[in-house]
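Thread: sanity check for a docking pose with coenzyme A

Original post by kr_44:
Hi all, I'm comparing my docking run against an independent structure prediction. Below are the sequence and the ligand SMILES. Could someone generate the full complex and paste the structure tokens? I mainly care about where the ligand ends up relative to the chain.
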Amino acid sequence: MIESPYLKQLMNKAAENVKTIVLPESEDNRILDAAHYIAEAKTANLVILGQKEVVADYYRAKGWTLDGIEVINPETSDKLQSYADMFYELRKDKGITKEDALKQMHNYNYFGTMMVKTGDADGMVSGANHSTADTVRPALQIIKSAKKGRAVSSCVLEVVNGKPFIFSDCAIVINPTAEELADIAVDSAQSAMNFGLTPKVAMLSYSTKGSGKGEGVDKVVEAVRLANEQLKLPEYKNFDIKIDGELQVDAALDAVVAAKKAPGSEVAGKANVLIFPDIEAGNIAYKLVQRLAGAEAYGPILQGLNAPINDLSRGALVEDIVGMIAITAIQAARK
Ligand SMILES: CC(C)(COP(=O)(O)OP(=O)(O)OC[C@H]1O[C@@H](n2cnc3c(N)ncnc32)[C@H](O)[C@@H]1OP(=O)(O)O)[C@@H](O)C(=O)NCCC(=O)NCCS
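Reply from moderator J.T.:
Ran it for you. Here is the predicted complex with coenzyme A included:
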């Protein structure tokens, strides 16, 4: 069933360090199918939130076993109250009551996120049936940014003719400031390294090295400066990350165009990480490449959180979900 060589590679990488990933959406057969392929390949251990009999019936009908899969019903779980108590402690300064906290734990995305918070799971994948906001909000409230004050963002791992690229931010930070765009570039470079890439990060615009003018160009130019400043910090000393811009996408990807428009750039013509000036450009671009070029698209993958929680596109296919579970396990192993 799993055909993509790149996806098999991701699954093998995840299997090197088996992690436990929670899947809150047992009502969706795509989730149950993906869980089977992951468990069968021993890519990760899984916790599915839902009713055990319903999941077991589905698997029995398919001729599959539940080996490597635990089914937990949050409604009857003895963890429900302790998760609610912990959530109350985390959020009481925001005005939440104990009753509200318990009510929230009946929402499986909140229950699953508390599993990750407490270490009962290493990561979570949701969003096949929920909006990005509903999947991501519990993560932002409970798991929080790894670095205080730094925006959590996202990237998509897009595989075009077998070649992987990182696209960012396609899903979270709607209209980033220059500072946020710089953070997105640096965090995307780290995501690229998680997937074995040596990051060459292009900060995209409608202008290449001053060819066009406008506020948007100024923002990207400033973001390039700030991102390169960050790379001087000791924590990035041992990494081979190159960030350049502002670049048009043809100059970023095509060596011939790059030689004309951005000669001497260490990124132009060789970019494998594409940073878009805002979420509109990023979201449209990744879906265009997926639909028109037939690329595999895994994501949005959240970056900058304390523990991996990832969102699915509601149009995700079973293979996409398998990929996201493997990616989440790889992120958990890197933590
Ligand atoms: C990510 C997103 C859902 C957060 O918005 P929201 O749910 O309204 O969040 P709120 O503003 O209520 O913030 C909730 C908490 O998350 C924090 N937060 C919000 N965005 C954050 C970010 N990017 N990084 C870190 N923390 C963030 C807030 O500070 C707040 O924390 P607090 O409650 O502890 O004070 C919002 O940015 C969004 O809708 N983005 C676009 C999603 C989308 O439609 N994507 C396209 C489809 S893939």
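Residues 94, 132-133, 136-137, 140-141, 145, 151-152, 171-174, 283, 300 surround coenzyme A (CB under 6 Å). Hope that helps with the comparison, let us know if your pose agrees.
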